[in-house]
Amino acid sequence: MSRARAEIVVELPLIRHNVRVLREHTGVEMMTVVKADGYGHGMVPAARAARDAGAAWLGVATIDEALGLREAGDTGRVLSWLGVPGEDYAAAISADVDVTAYSVAELREVAAAVGAAGRPARLQLKVDTGLSRGGAPLDAWEDLVAEAAAGQARGDWTVTGIWSHFACSDEPEHPANDAQEAAFRHALEVGERAGLRPEVRHLANSAAAILRPSSRFDLVRCGIASYGLDPAPGHTPDLGLLPAMSAVAELAMVKRIPAGAGVSYGHTWHAPHATTVGVVPVGYGDGVPRHASNHAEVLVGGRRRPVRGRVCMDQLVVDLDDDDVAAGARATLFGTGRLGEPTAQDWAEAAGTISYEIVTRIGGRFVRRYVDEGQE
Ligand SMILES: *Cc1c(COP(=O)(O)O)cnc(C)c1O
């Protein structure tokens, strides 16, 4: 096998560390969210690390993701939450995966699948408390709860959870947070009045889990913070979370360019004086955001080097100044920050996005490698 020219290095001990820190900080049961291939870290290794660190639950968007966890041998509680019409609920029920219903139409699909699965479903109900995305709107909630209670009485399922999701938890002072939490408490009362006694009531994602104790209920659903990234930059206290992913490549070429030389497509940067540039052999085809052109930095030879000109499909150019750096030198796009390298948060700011998008989209021709010092 050829040597990897570009690697995504995932440090599993850091995921375990982060999950433990979050469990201690929140004091409730933990659902580690491993959707979208574990936010780019690899769903199965991330899930194993989370379980090792005591995550009682794993959260995924799709039933396929949940079944992937089962195929990899995971036997713990798993919740999937984003069905589409015609979803294979029978496969999820057979695999002991908790499924989520947003509507009476979805309840009917789950009920039809129960027969095929030959066992009752574990069903969670999602209420829309103000995100206006998935979940039952408040004016449909009583009907959904009534149908769900009837299905439970028939033996079609057990309602194992009632939950919702915040819109603005990364802005702790935003008034939507109070409004959503109040709406959630009301929705829980409606469920109780209908006789539902779910195992878990949950509302908080990473930002709320850390910043809003009143929203923790029985369980928190932590995605981004499990990977060591800050869910609410500027608001989060320092808990010692450590970014688990690094993206590194080797310089393909190093050369001198004269004063005035235009760099990369469109010549959006010109060298003010003669300088040395390095070619980093990754680009937007590998998930490096083109929006970070002329803004991001890369660590080479112990120093942060500015990206000059546009990020291309397969490569980008960094300014090495007059330093003596050779082709083949290690270029760290982002990592833990421990060695002075930028973080995914830095890249997010350079590209006008959030760290979630940086780590989830990085991929392409990067080869993922896991570092695991064994159980600590
Ligand atoms: C992705 C997701 C989460 C995790 O959010 P983070 O901000 O990454 O902690 C939690 N709940 C739901 C419903 C999600 O879609």
UniProtKB/TrEMBL annotation:
One of its GO terms (cellular component) is cytosol. SMART domains: Ala_racemase_C. Coiled coil: none annotated. Pathway: Amino-acid biosynthesis; D-alanine biosynthesis; D-alanine from L-alanine: step 1/1. The keyword Ribonucleoprotein does not apply. Keywords: Isomerase, Pyridoxal phosphate. Substrate binds at residues 133, 313. It holds the Pfam family Ala_racemase_C. InterPro entries: Ala_racemase, Ala_racemase/Decarboxylase_C, Ala_racemase_C, Ala_racemase_N, Ala_racemase_pyridoxalP-BS, PLP-binding_barrel. One of its GO terms (molecular function) is pyridoxal phosphate binding. GO terms for biological process: D-alanine biosynthetic process; peptidoglycan biosynthetic process. Its EC number is 5.1.1.1. It is an enzyme of class 5 (isomerase). HAMAP family: Ala_racemase. PANTHER family: ALANINE RACEMASE, ALANINE RACEMASE, CATABOLIC-RELATED. Belongs to the alanine racemase family. This is Alanine racemase. It comes from Nocardioides euryhalodurans.
